């Protein structure tokens, strides 16, 4: 949606005040554009079901449950606890979930979205081809519950899928990225 403004006999001060107010309204709208998630709802996929779909196993399985799943979108949950293996060294005095693992968790949720469409998902894996437009907005620490929403940007073509994911903690956007992945039959070179 594109807007056009035409000013006749403009006064620079008035125009600047108008633009500042407009930008504030846009920023407020963007901040309030956070989806609502029902964490009390029964999971569509629990951890046992996820382990049947993804090849990942603990401690590298970074998705605890799926609470929403449609043809082109998925919502997954990760409970971050102090018992996570990565907190031993990152950083012991101020534990923070590493950014690369945030992206991995986001990609695992996306992998479930794509693999769940296959008749035998356990025979396939997803591999990163590209990670783009990554933004880390806030630290993720023990006790946080990350809600990942991943949407397909394009339909799967020749085993390649393009997705956009966002992670939320306490109704705040904490991480976002676009991911391109390839679906490969296990034990096959790509």
Q: How would you sum up the global shape?
A: globular
Helix percentage: 10-25%
User: Could you name the ranges where pLDDT drops below 50 across 5 or more consecutive residues?
Assistant: none
Total number of helical segments? 3
The residue-averaged pLDDT reads 90
User: What is the string of SSEs from the N terminus onward?
Assistant: HHEEHEEEE
C-alpha Rg, in Å?
A: 20 Å
Report the sheet-strand fraction: 25-35%
How many angstroms separate the termini? 40 Å
Number of strands: 6
Features:
190 residues; alpha+beta; 3 helices; 23% helix
Structural overview:
With 190 residues, the chain is α+β, with helices and mostly antiparallel strands. 23% of the residues lie in helices and 33% in strands. The protein contains 3 helices and 6 strands, in the order H-H-E-E-H-E-E-E-E. The protein has a 6-stranded antiparallel sheet, covered by helices on one side. A hairpin with a 2-residue loop joins strand 5 and strand 6. The longest helix is centred in the first third of the chain and has 20 residues. The chain is globular, with a radius of gyration of 20 Å. The chain starts with 11 loop residues before the first helix and ends in a 5-residue tail after the last strand. The relative contact order is 0.15. Involved in unsaturated fatty acids biosynthesis. Catalyzes the dehydration of short chain beta-hydroxyacyl-ACPs and long chain saturated and unsaturated beta-hydroxyacyl-ACPs. Keywords: Cytoplasm, Lipid A biosynthesis, Lipid biosynthesis, Lipid metabolism, Lyase. It is an enzyme of class 4 (lyase).
């Amino acid at each position: 949606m594109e807007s056009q403004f035409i000013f006749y006999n403009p006064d620079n001060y008035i125009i600047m005040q108008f633009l500042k107010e407009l930008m504030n309204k846009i920023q407020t709208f963007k901040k309030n554009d956070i989806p609502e998630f029902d964490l009390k709802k029964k999971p569509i996929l629990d951890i046992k079901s996820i382990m049947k779909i993804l090849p990942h196993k603990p401690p590298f399985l970074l998705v605890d449950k799926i609470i929403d799943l449609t043809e082109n979108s998925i919502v997954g949950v990760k409970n971050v606890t102090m018992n996570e293996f990565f907190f031993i060294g990152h950083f012991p005095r101020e534990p923070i979930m590493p950014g690369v693992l945030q992206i991995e968790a986001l990609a695992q949720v996306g992998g479930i979205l794509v693999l769940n469409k296959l008749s035998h998902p356990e025979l396939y894996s997803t591999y990163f081809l590209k990670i783009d437009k990554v933004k880390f907005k806030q630290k993720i620490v023990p006790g946080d519950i990350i809600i990942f929403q991943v949407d397909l940007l394009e339909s799967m073509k020749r085993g390649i899928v393009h997705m956009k994911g966002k992670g939320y903690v306490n109704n705040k956007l904490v991480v976002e990225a676009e991911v391109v992945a390839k679906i490969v039959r296990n034990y096959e070179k790509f």
